[in-house]
Amino acid sequence: MNAIFREDLSRFDELLEQTAAYAGEFLRRMNELPVSMEVPEIPSAGLPEKGMGGSAALELFDNRFGSYLTASAGPRYFGFVTGGVTPAALTGDWLSSAIDMNAADKSSLAFALEKETLQLLRQLFSLPDAFEGVFVTGATMSNFTGLAAARQWLGQQQGVNVAEQGAGALHNVKVLAATPHSSVAKALSMLGLGRNSLVLLPTLPGREAVDVKALERWIAGNPGTPFIYVASAGTVNTVDFDDIAAIAALKHKHPFWLHVDAAFGGFAAVSPRFRHWLNGWEQADSITIDAHKWLNVPYDCAMLFSRHPKLQLEVFQNAGAAYLGDPAQNFNYINYAPENSRRLRALPAWFSLRAYGAEGYRDVVEQNVKQAQRLGEALEKSGHFRLLAPVKMCVACFTFNMEESKLADQIHVFLQALVKRGVVYVTPTQYAGLPAMRAALVNWRTTDKDTDLAFAELESVAASIRGLSAISANN
Q1: Domains of the chain, with CATH numbers?
Q2: What is the pTM of this model?
């Protein structure tokens, strides 16, 4: 054994203690750390011929990068719909790395633990057992996996086995949606269906939800044409929901695959106050839900729930790999999703679900919604900002209260200033053709104090930017 490997092995416990102490100090400072900053260009260091050992590497990491660590898992990071990491989820994540189980290895505990965790998640979301689940990296790969099964179904309708013949054997592919996430078009590109197969339908007035009558008209104008419909269950800007029940009812009259993108909106199911938005989703063919959003487990983790595991098997099976066994006889999750090699993503979710239960997650969802609505009310009363849509759940979408021609430049300068100050982080967006901003609250740590502090910072920066603009104009 190499001498430095041998030295680290002999001091493994000490290295783990040092690492835990470093991580603990970071977590203790979470509320005080900036949520963002301008990181300077850091010169890349070359690979050393002789290593320094784990302890020295930790010290080097702190010296080179420690001052640039930000609280992107903290209570005032409102960008990218990012949850934090619950204490129990972090416990599971550390153990997952320490145990280093291959989730595909059925000779270990991994398979049984993953199976149990998926059952816990079905119960959390009140999904029927008819839905088979599988873990993937995030909502993008979940949408990809669900749409890959949909592509196989579409092939069946045309007498084509896409898994064998390729996407080129399909013709007249149509994927319908009203306000799809960008990952849907990305998945269509990766699947060989092409972004141009996406047909955007009209939305209801003042909403991001589909006009179901427009979908009915499209069906009437394309009789007998099988298609895929991607329903929004929580849009990025306003957390709007398609009327899934009305869409599902159309399946009785016309053949189509219903995929529900519920990356974070699926968590409406955990609260009696909000689960009505998901009425009918139990009739979907496939459902995307992201775990590193409102479940608050570490990146990267999401799930795909599907009623059609046989179609997934046709697409993702490892045929001809004798060492993996017969996919048809030996159930293994690697035959139902893109990845073969993957870490045990189920473990952080298992720990957090067991630690906090349905009540804990119901409280987080309802707490974050109240906080987002509280922030929205403050923005609506502000002289600097205006809400662009009611705060339905966890996202406030807003812009400056000024003429439209100046919005884009003002928002750019404003967000740059926010990043430098590091108190709160929001992201730019477009809503109804207007340059806008979006604050997404899905973190278990966020308190009313954080939302008040965030709003005060938004007001302060807006006042300073508007003041500078006025001075500049006068000069």
Answers
A1: 88-351 (3.40.640.10)
A2: 0.96
